[in-house]
């Protein structure tokens, strides 16, 4: 049997112009099922020790997925589908697989996915099937034989080099949502609003997975993607792979969409933890909102320094220099990653003469997840600080980022690049607004979070990027009704943007009627 396996291993490396490779795959996929059932065609040595021989078979099958010139042919794709289907069936149906075989199987799937997804070119063909099978088998392993710490680290390192592929962020969002749907009833009880996900997504998590394993798997999968902002600023990430660096060199047009999809996935998770449900009647009204960057009558009447009148329980009046933003945030000698500061030199000032009119009609509508929500947060929701500890680092970085790659600036206008990433920033800003508007009475929020939130809103409103500003306005309808300390310092910025929206809308309607 061992000699025959060596012959089959060599046969997998032959060209595809004959049926040799297909016959080798047929034999190996048949022998693999010895861990499920043992038909009469199974050799006796494999029947006696199926785990040992399945591990060797998986190592040999890896040769089939090595780069080759004819790997885009339909024949090759059908062979890959056969192997992936057999591996998925093996993981679902077996009950006698040892830990060593589980780890060999997971290593096999990681390696073939890395071959398919790590190159900078878009992964075509059946790349989505590769990712689906990997995540499905990995979740099965979490239920039956939880992967080791070193295996999780390998998965995360490889995953970071796949983030430039749209299918990766899409499948990551599906798994994160499915795990969150299982996690929330464990944390908050059955009375907490159910986080609805499609049936095919909820089926990704095995029904018999223990509660403790659900929470561990959820946390590890959540941080599998790392900070989505690294897609915008590769120079900040010390672990950026060479393949991703090549993607930035050729200015991949898919990265802004991937960034937005990642932030939308995070936004959906935040809504689930808050117990919010999404409204569905704002999409048609969003395109009618417009912006004009010119100075309006209200802005002309603003004094150089404004004072906000404190409401009961709020902070003392704070002087606000409206055209600018605070120079720095309060910092500590050793601040954790979620308390990274935004530097003032990255915050542009609003120009009253150079800013061209921004009409929302020229932008695509805000996605449904960026729109306001129809109900308030559930009383059983977690504390604000806990939610910000979990998601704050990603949201603050995404909402306040102004980084632009120097390589991109050589060939593209900075304003154009900023607008490309505006959808993801709008998602992050809207999510932050929803979090802070859900504050309970007398609930304490760390000052570092409040200061970063205020700084981001001042920056975003003065920048007057239409998708970002509209997302803030639609998700901040109750912001000034909350017991947020010092929130009144945002009033001048909000009133100025509202003035631009209303005046531009009035002008647009007047031009349309000819009056």
TrEMBL record:
<dbReference type="InterPro" id="IPR039930">
    <property type="entry name" value="RALGAPB"/>
</dbReference>
<dbReference type="Pfam" id="PF20412">
    <property type="entry name" value="RALGAPB_N"/>
</dbReference>
<dbReference type="InterPro" id="IPR046859">
    <property type="entry name" value="RGPA/RALGAPB_N"/>
</dbReference>
<feature type="domain" description="Ral GTPase-activating protein subunit alpha/beta N-terminal">
    <location>
        <begin position="77"/>
        <end position="190"/>
    </location>
</feature>
<protein>
    <recommendedName>
        <fullName>Ral GTPase-activating protein subunit alpha/beta N-terminal domain-containing protein</fullName>
    </recommendedName>
</protein>
<feature type="region of interest" description="Disordered">
    <location>
        <begin position="293"/>
        <end position="357"/>
    </location>
</feature>
């Amino acid at each position: 049997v061992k000699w025959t396996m060596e012959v089959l291993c060599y046969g997998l490396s032959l060209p595809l112009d004959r049926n040799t490779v297909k016959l080798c795959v047929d034999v190996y996929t048949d022998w693999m099922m010895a861990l499920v059932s043992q038909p009469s065609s199974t050799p006796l040595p494999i029947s006696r020790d199926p785990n040992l021989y399945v591990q060797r078979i998986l190592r040999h099958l890896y040769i089939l997925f090595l780069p080759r010139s004819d790997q885009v042919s339909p024949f090759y794709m059908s062979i890959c589908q056969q192997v992936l289907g057999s591996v998925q069936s093996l993981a679902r149906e077996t009950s006698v697989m040892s830990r060593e075989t589980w780890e060999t199987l997971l290593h096999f799937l990681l390696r073939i996915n890395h071959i398919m997804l790590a190159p900078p070119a878009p992964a075509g063909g059946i790349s989505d099937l590769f990712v689906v099978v990997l995540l499905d088998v990995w979740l099965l392993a979490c239920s039956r034989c939880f992967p080791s710490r070193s295996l999780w680290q390998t998965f995360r390192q490889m995953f970071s080099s796949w983030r430039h592929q749209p299918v990766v962020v899409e499948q990551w969002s599906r798994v994160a949502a499915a795990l969150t749907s299982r996690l929330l009833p464990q944390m908050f009880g059955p009375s907490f609003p159910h986080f609805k996900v499609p049936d095919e997504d909820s089926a990704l998590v095995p029904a018999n997975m223990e509660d403790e394993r659900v929470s561990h798997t959820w946390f590890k999968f959540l941080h599998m993607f790392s900070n989505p902002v690294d897609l915008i600023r590769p120079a900040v990430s010390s672990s950026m792979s060479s393949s991703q660096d090549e993607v930035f060199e050729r200015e991949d047009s898919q990265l802004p969409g991937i960034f937005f999809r990642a932030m939308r996935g995070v936004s959906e998770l935040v809504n689930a933890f808050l117990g919010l449900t999404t409204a569905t009647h704002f999409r048609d009204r969003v395109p009618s909102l417009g912006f004009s960057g010119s100075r309006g009558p209200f802005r002309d009447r603003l004094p150089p320094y404004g004072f906000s009148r404190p409401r009961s329980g709020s902070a003392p009046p704070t002087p606000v220099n409206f055209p600018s933003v605070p120079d720095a945030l309060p910092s500590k000698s050793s601040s954790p990653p979620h308390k990274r500061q935004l530097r003032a030199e990255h915050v542009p000032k609003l120009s009253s003469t150079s800013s061209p009119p921004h009409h929302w009609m020229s932008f695509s509508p805000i996605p449904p997840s960026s729109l306001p929500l129809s109900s308030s947060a559930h009383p059983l929701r977690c504390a604000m600080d806990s939610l910000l500890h979990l998601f704050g680092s990603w949201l603050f970085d995404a909402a306040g980022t102004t980084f632009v790659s120097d390589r991109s600036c050589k060939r593209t206008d900075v304003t154009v690049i900023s607008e490309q990433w505006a959808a993801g920033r709008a998602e992050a800003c809207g999510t932050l607004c929803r979090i802070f508007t859900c504050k309970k009475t007398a609930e304490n929020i760390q000052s570092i979070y409040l200061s970063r939130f205020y700084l981001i809103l001042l920056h975003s409103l003065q920048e007057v990027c239409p998708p970002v500003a509209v997302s803030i306005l639609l998700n901040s309808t109750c912001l000034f009704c909350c017991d947020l300390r010092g929130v009144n310092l945002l009033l001048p910025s909000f009133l100025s943007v509202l003035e631009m929206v209303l005046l531009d809308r009035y002008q647009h309607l007047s031009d349309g009627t000819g009056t």
